[in-house]
Write a structure and sequence with these properties.
Length: 126
């Protein structure tokens, strides 16, 4: 069982930056991939970014590439999502998620993620 606790959400102005953190419980954090998803009001949850267990391999949704950076500190059991040049359309609830599949591959499908954070809101004012 893995618990994911997110922090760093909150209101931000368009053009601004924000960093989300997601701390995981347990001793095996360095062995599994982590992803970020978001759900905008009235829309389905969508993929944002994913990292393999080491953090060396990362992948992004086309809509955020160049603006968002996923990183992780395995010594702190934490994954981050650095967001810059935010636009109003990025307003959403942002979720971190753990992918503990035995053979990892970057997954944009939320069905592959076994554990989820609580999802802080990130409103971006226009």
């Amino acid at each position: 069982q893995v618990q994911l606790v997110e922090s760093g959400g909150g209101l931000v102005q368009a053009g601004g930056s924000l960093r989300l953190s997601c701390a995981a419980s347990g001793r095996t954090f360095s062995s599994y991939g982590m992803g970020w998803f978001r759900q905008a009001p009235g829309k389905e949850r969508e993929f944002v970014a994913v990292s393999n267990s080491s953090g060396r391999n990362t992948y992004y949704a086309d809509s955020v590439r160049g603006r968002f950076t996923i990183s992780r500190d395995n010594a702190k059991n934490t994954v981050y999502l650095q967001m810059k040049s935010l636009i109003h359309e990025y307003t959403a609830v942002y979720y971190c998620a753990a992918d503990q599949r035995r053979f990892w591959s970057p997954s944009k499908n939320d069905a592959g993620y076994a554990y989820w954070g609580q999802g802080p809101q990130v409103p971006v004012s226009s």
